[in-house]
């Protein structure tokens, strides 16, 4: 088989100043049980990922060769070519993150999976929510160009330092509450994606376990007062009526 792996870092539009843009990443889902693959694919797409689905090992290797894959979710018990062999062959050609998902529960199976190149191992039956959390954590660890390059600039006047949780408007620091910062962070790391109020609450709960005693609308209103030139005509936090909010700032590289 001719390999034509396209490394992640050649796709610069997937990274904004060292930060991964999740809704542009390609995941290869290798699972021979169609019901499981369909459900998993639906949830991953809801999170903004592009998902390629393969039902056997041979097809998985071809998909990986033909497409810029950024993470592989790999079942072990596959037709044609085993998951172990798929993992081994991919790992010989690429450092792409691999999560093994399997019904094999023995410790030796897990050790073997990690030893042949898997980065994580999840046993069936598993929680889709747990899989998504593991995927995002693995992507963050694997694809950050520079862990210190976490300052994003937008529209020539707004800077956000994700490491220090600082926001500056025209060079002047602006105080943000933890919740306000996480709302802003969620929106700007998913440019163009519309979030409903419930989705925003769910997203920011991934960053913090504190209770949110005010509505998302209130937090959005406060954020706009702090970063918009004219809060009534926002350039950054855009309302999509009947749907929710999205980030409208233009990143400067």
SSE blueprint:
Blueprint: E1 15-16, E2 19-20, E3 26-30, H1 34-46, E4 50-54, H2 57-66, E5 71-75, H3 83-93, E6 98-102, H4 107-115, E7 120-123, H5 128-142, E8 151-154, E9 158-161, E10 166-169, E11 172-174, H6 178-188, H7 197-204, H8 216-227, E12 237-240, E13 244-247
Helix pairs in contact: 2-3, 6-7, 6-8
Folded structure, characterized:
The protein is of the alpha/beta class and 253 residues long. The chain folds into two domains: 8-142, Rossmann fold; 151-247, Orthogonal Bundle (Arc Repressor Mutant, subunit A), CATH 1.10.10.10. The chain is 35% helix and 20% strand. It is built from eight helices and 13 strands. The protein has helices spanning 34-46, 57-66, 83-93, 107-115, 128-142, 178-188, 197-204, 216-227, and strands at residues 15-16, 19-20, 26-30, 50-54, 71-75, 98-102, 120-123, 151-154, 158-161, 166-169, 172-174, 237-240, 244-247. The protein has a five-stranded parallel β-sheet with strand order 4-3-5-6-7, with helices on both faces. A four-stranded antiparallel β-sheet has the order 8-9-10-11, with no helix packed on it. Helix 2 (57-66) runs parallel beside helix 3, helix 6 crosses helix 7 and helix 6 (178-188) crosses helix 8 (216-227). The longest helix has 15 residues, at 128-142. The model is unreliable at 1-13, 15-19 and 209-213 (pLDDT under 50).
């Amino acid at each position: 088989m001719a390999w034509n792996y396209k490394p992640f870092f050649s796709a610069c539009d997937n990274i904004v100043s060292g930060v991964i843009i999740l809704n542009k990443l390609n995941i290869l889902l290798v699972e021979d049980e169609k019901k499981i693959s369909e459900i998993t694919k639906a949830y991953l797409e809801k999170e903004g990922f592009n998902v390629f689905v393969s039902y056997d090992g041979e097809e998985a290797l071809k998909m990986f060769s033909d497409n810029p894959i950024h993470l592989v979710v790999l079942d072990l018990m596959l037709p044609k070519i085993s998951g172990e062999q798929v993992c081994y062959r991919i790992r010989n050609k690429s450092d792409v993150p691999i999560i093994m998902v399997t019904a094999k529960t023995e410790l030796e199976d897990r050790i073997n999976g990690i030893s042949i190149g898997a980065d994580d191992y999840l046993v069936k039956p598993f929680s889709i929510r747990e899989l998504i959390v593991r995927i995002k954590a693995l992507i963050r660890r694997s694809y950050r160009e520079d862990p210190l390059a976490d300052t994003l600039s937008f529209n020539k006047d707004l800077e956000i330092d994700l490491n220090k949780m600082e926001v500056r408007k025209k060079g002047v620091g602006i105080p943000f509450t933890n919740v306000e910062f996480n709302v802003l962070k969620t929106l700007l790391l998913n440019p163009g994606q519309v979030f409903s109020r419930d989705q925003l609450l769910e997203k920011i709960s991934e960053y913090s376990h504190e209770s949110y005693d005010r509505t998302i609308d209130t937090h959005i209103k406060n954020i706009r007062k702090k970063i918009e030139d004219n809060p009534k005509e926002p350039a950054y936090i855009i309302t999509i009526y009947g749907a929710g909010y999205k980030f409208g700032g233009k990143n400067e590289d």
